[in-house]
Model the fold of this input.
Amino acid sequence: MLPKKLKPYLVNDLVRIGIKLDGGYVISQKIIENTKTLLSFGVFDEFSFELDFKKKKANLKIFCYDHTVNNIFWVKNTIHWFFHFIRNRTNFSRIFRYFKYKRFFNGDDIKHIQKKIISSKRKEPNSLSIDQILNNTNEKIENISLKIDIESDEYRILDDLINKNFLCLVIEFHNVDLHMDKILNFINTNKNMSIIHIHGNNFGHPDENGDPIYLEITFLNESLAGPNLNDINERNYPIKDLDFPNDTKREDIILKFGNLNNR
Done:
């Protein structure tokens, strides 16, 4: 069972942004209405969350950070999906994902910055810390939503997120079975954010207890949480018609939560 601390508070305006596969996330409608700038750490070749968010909020500014997505990446990615289509006759459109990428990241209000995200305690070439990014962003942090999917490097920057007054955090936590204490410490310390949604990414097999080893968690600033935040949440997770398996070849992972003494 997952720790009780991970059970979301009740919010009644949840919507899905992005595809019904890996890359889509569930957030609150209030987040769409109040976000002026979206920061996204981790792009790869799947940016439907950012694209869909922009469709729903035309004046939104989007700044994505991923040092791994460059010309070499796109050559390898295109070749990979070409041969994937030859073998399996599926995912034909992904062969042309580069052109979709170029069309999307072509304006002053939508940018991909090829920089690595690091802790403020470290220094590396071609990198930025969250503090440096915020200092360069002409926006109040209360109007900024942040999405993080950086393949376990999220744990390196959690301390830099604590008590920062973001509007929303969407974080994909990897290898949860190894890092649960870090996640719980982040939740306990970050007093101004509340969990409003959680989903188990089924690309990783569940652990020996049946719990997912990858978790997608949405945090909402309590200033926007509304009067229903403390209502009893009787929802089952995954939520029908909002959550979908990341890997369609496997069943979605049913989440169970322990009692108050569970971690």
About this structure: The mean pLDDT is 93. The first strand starts at residue 14 and ends at 17. Residues 26 and 48 are 13 Å apart (CA to CA).
